Amino acid sequence: MSRMINSLALITALLCTLYSQSAAAEKLTYLIIAEQAEPFQINSVTDYVQSGIITDIVTFIAQKKSLEIDHQIMPFKRYLYEIKQQTYPNWISYGSPTWRAVEGNLAQNKRLSKQALFSAEHIMVSLKSQHDSPLNVNDLVDKTVILLKGFDYPGLTPIIQQNTMNTLELNSHKSALLALKNGRGDLFIEMKSRVLYSIRQHQIDASTFEFTDIPDAIAPVDIHLSYGDAVPQELVDWIDLQILQMKANGEIARIISDYQ
Known about the structure:
The protein is α/β, with parallel strands linked by helices. Helices cover about 35% and strands about 25% of the residues.
């Protein structure tokens, strides 16, 4: 009898372990960059409701599988730190294969979805009144370029070094655009969708700016979902199928259009 009780206890313990592992696999921590990633992630540290292109895509996918999503909002440097420390093993966020370090993968982009969600282009913003003709990347000697603090701009570093440019790093798109408007810098380089969203959101007069596409300096960036090491591969594969379906039926295009 005691052997039977022990066997039942062992089976019960194993089932509880399997159930707990299965439950954990269906819960993801969604890492959100505070106030620097609009319109991909729109939030503030004190917000209880988040939105944005990536957030809406993650929410849409989660609803199809009843995934439990735990939102964690944090400044960008802490975001990278928490990923490296594996504070939240089952995390999901976004990244790009372009955002790599010379010595290896950046933490944010170590494990990406096979399917890209969309492609993002960069633009150069300058004041119309400053120049007789629009600035281009071949005429930037001794200029001051405004960038977002902590962000990576592939392809731009050699241009900054070649033209002996100064850099001014600021915390938000709004502060960068206002700094440009107030003459603290000569140009602001950032993703086009982020710049245009910030101009609309903060009611900044766009007519004072000149917008220049710079695909030769910074190639379009493919944006993917990114995952922590503990997210089960079966779930990653399932999400990839959902991305394919969302692209095929126009759902991702519809979400993007909400923020244009």
